[in-house]
């Protein structure tokens, strides 16, 4: 902390600024103020408001009134030590004169000690301190605390005034309340002239409120001055443009689509905003408050919809996916059907999140999203098991016009494998055609035809027959092994062991 050097009292006296209380005959009650020098540790006592205020301005700390002094009684004298900067107070003339011989400067009568002697002022002494060596207090607790830490008990030095002798109790409650009212006023809401009148009255009122010697008449006058200034405030220029626009916006909302409570709140907010808008005496603060209230009320609007069915559909999809081993993924389905489903799902999630807050998300929109989601799932074409079988046996590639491009993209094969496949390509082509022609169909390039029309058992049987009839044992070992693996598959269980079947998620939408 920066160490600020406070002016010594010799300097203050030299400037003619020391004006201590003396008899203070002009006040019914004399408060003895206590201020503290944080650098020297001295506590200084004075009845003079101007002396107190000057010291505070120099960095001393004001510690409120120490005690009340009587208008008359035994004089208490003040001395100043120009070497230490310390002050001493005593009602003993002998002590007062002796200290003068020790180099202390006599400063005359400071205040009076009450002759009733009912409120003692205790004095303690710190032999280790150069300044602030003596402490004066009416608090026996504070006095004993100092004694307990090594200060010397010098008993009672003089007496404070008996509170029962006070002739006037000053009530400042109303003044302080009016000061608080004035400080809550916004300068921007009123004309400069009328607000300046209030500022002047407030400044004067604060001085009276802080003055320990202020009379009730002074307090009452300051209170009335603030009241008058408040009553005379004239509204300044008020901008209602934004409020007008927000009222119009709020009136255009279709209250029928919102919940009854939020719609009622909006109607109330509009009414209150219109009152302020039509009030010629409304302040800018009042206008701004209504604007914010309208904005908040609009933000709180909730659309009256029931998204339960859509939420249930999304929940069922999650449950079905989990039950099937999380197989509701793009790689398990034909690309075009998956893209349709995925778009419907994302749209459903977005609409569900906005339901109740976005006025464009109507019940019809929610219901449509739910129907679209269910239909897109039901229309998914499962292709993953067929692709796995193709990857293992490499046989489906022999009729490449039937295999879709997205399935081909999943296959990894080398030139040697393709050489073996080329051998029996033409043989299998005829068998595939027969499978479709048996149902009166013509082979197409749609993978869905393979999934829905080809019986896996029949397909395996046809592959075996074709390979056996066309097998050329002169092909190398690698080619024979590839074909041999196909020949070893004779049942569905063996097929599952070689190519694990994937559980396809299914949903009964009607079930609860």
From TrEMBL:
Signal peptide: 1-24
Keywords on record: Signal
Pfam families linked to this entry: DUF5648 (PF18885), FIVAR (PF07554)
Domain DUF5648: 32-160
Highest taxon of the lineage: Bacteria
Name recorded for this polypeptide: FIVAR domain-containing protein
Organism name: Enterococcus alishanensis
């Amino acid at each position: 902390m920066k160490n600020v050097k406070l002016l010594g009292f010799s300097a203050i006296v030299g400037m003619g600024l020391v004006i201590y209380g003396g008899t203070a005959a002009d006040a019914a009650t004399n408060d003895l103020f206590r201020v503290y020098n944080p650098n020297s540790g001295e506590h200084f006592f004075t009845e003079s408001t101007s002396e107190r205020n000057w010291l505070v301005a120099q960095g001393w700390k004001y510690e409120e009134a120490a005690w009340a002094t009587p208008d008359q009684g035994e004089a208490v004298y003040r001395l100043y030590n120009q070497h230490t900067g310390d002050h001493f107070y005593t009602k003993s003339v002998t002590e007062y004169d002796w200290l003068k011989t020790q180099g202390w400067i006599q400063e005359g009568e400071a205040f009076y000690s009450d002759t009733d002697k009912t409120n003692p002022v205790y004095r303690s002494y710190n032999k280790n301190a150069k300044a602030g060596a003596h402490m004066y207090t009416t608090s026996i607790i504070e006095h004993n605390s100092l004694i307990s830490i090594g200060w010397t008990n010098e008993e009672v030095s003089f007496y404070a005034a008996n509170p029962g002798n006070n002739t006037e109790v000053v009530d400042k409650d109303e003044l302080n309340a009016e000061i608080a009212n004035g400080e809550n006023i916004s300068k921007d809401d009123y004309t400069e002239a009328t607000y300046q009148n209030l500022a002047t009255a407030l400044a004067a009122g604060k001085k009276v409120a802080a003055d320990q010697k202020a009379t009730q008449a002074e307090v009452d006058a300051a209170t009335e001055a603030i009241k008058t200034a408040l009553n005379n405030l004239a509204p300044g220029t008020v901008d209602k443009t934004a409020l007008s626009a927000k009222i119009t916006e709020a009136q255009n909302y279709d209250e029928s689509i919102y919940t009854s409570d939020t719609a009622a709140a909006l109607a109330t907010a509009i009414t209150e905003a219109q009152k302020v808008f039509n009030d010629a005496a409304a302040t800018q603060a009042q206008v701004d408050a209504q604007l914010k209230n309208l904005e908040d009320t609009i933000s709180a609007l909730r659309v009256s919809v029931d998204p339960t069915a859509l939420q249930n559909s999304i929940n069922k999809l999650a449950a079905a996916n989990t039950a099937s081993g999380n197989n509701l993924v793009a790689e398990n389905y034909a690309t075009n059907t998956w893209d349709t489903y995925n778009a419907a799902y994302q749209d459903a999630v977005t609409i569900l999140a906005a339901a109740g807050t976005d006025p464009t998300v109507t019940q019809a929109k929610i219901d449509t999203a739910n129907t679209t989601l269910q239909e897109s799932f039901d229309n998914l074409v499962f292709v993953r098991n067929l692709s796995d079988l193709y990857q293992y046996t490499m046989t489906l590639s022999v009729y490449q016009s039937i295999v879709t491009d997205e399935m081909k993209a999943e296959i990894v094969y080398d030139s040697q494998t393709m050489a073996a496949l080329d051998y029996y390509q033409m043989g299998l082509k005829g068998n595939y055609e027969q499978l479709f022609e048996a149902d009166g169909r013509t082979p197409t390039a749609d993978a869905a035809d393979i999934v829905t029309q080809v019986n896996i058992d029949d397909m395996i049987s046809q592959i075996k027959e074709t390979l056996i009839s066309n097998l050329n044992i002169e092909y190398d070992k690698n080619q024979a092994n590839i074909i041999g693996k196909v020949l070893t598959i004779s049942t569905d269980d063996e097929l599952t062991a070689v190519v694990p079947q994937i559980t396809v998620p299914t949903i009964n939408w009607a079930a609860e």
